[in-house]
Amino acid sequence: MEIYGKEEDRAKWALHYAQVKANINQPKRTHKVTVSGKNKQGKPYSYDYKYADLADIDKAVMDGIKKATDKEGNVTFSYFFDIQTTNTAVAVQTLLVDSSGFTVKTNKIIFQNGKAYDAQATASLISYAKRYSLSGAFGIAADDDNDVQDKKTIYEPKILTKQELENYQVYYNGVQANLYDLYQEARDGIKDAQDWFKESHTPEDAQAIHQVAQIFKKKHKKTDTSKTKEKQAVLDKIQQAKKDPFEDKKVVSDADSTVDRLF
Fold this sequence. Notes:
Blueprint lengths: L1 E3 L5 H13 L8 E8 L5 E8 L2 H14 L9 E9 L3 E10 L4 E3 L3 E4 L6 H20 L23 H5 L2 E4 L2 E4 H9 L3 H8 L4 H40 L14 H6 L1
Antiparallel strand pairs: 1-6, 2-3, 4-5, 5-6, 5-7, 8-9
Helix pairs in contact: 1-2, 2-3, 5-6
């Protein structure tokens, strides 16, 4: 979550947000969908659930906004979306804007987009992300609360081979970039690269990043071990140099301590 504006306007934002939320009537779930697939054990499942679509949710929110006005009848609160698309995913954030200018930006809702080349499919996915983001921003229950988590297929990205990792491409600052090179830039202190790794990523990218990080960690550990050995070798040489070169030539005289000091 990100916050913009003057600190003294935070209270106004909170008041107006509460007024809008209090005036929102939960939208009716008039749409129905059947979900089917296989669970982790490979067993098929199927279930129905009802939901409110983006238009229903937007209407409920806007009705609440229209009821929360100042003395002159002006609305004091609104919202809009920040939409980001890449060749692998879409991300949506809802910005909650107060009339004072104080703004709160929600966390990203990210969905994998396997059909970035298909404008219609991408637009549908964006609408889907908007629906989830807006529902979360105003606490709207847009879906049936069915306990079906154990039935759903849990997607687990595959572990990549070394060659796949070396050739893995990600979408960075509007262009494709090699993940290995990008990770090295981040380690070298390039801020843009470091910021990119702090962002949310698709499951596939997250898996690749994790594996690359482990590889770099192992390389770094080997380098540290080698440096430690080199350092120890230098210290051993220094200690050897400090030894008395005539140690083996000294003699001990019980009779005369003056002679002993000469050696």
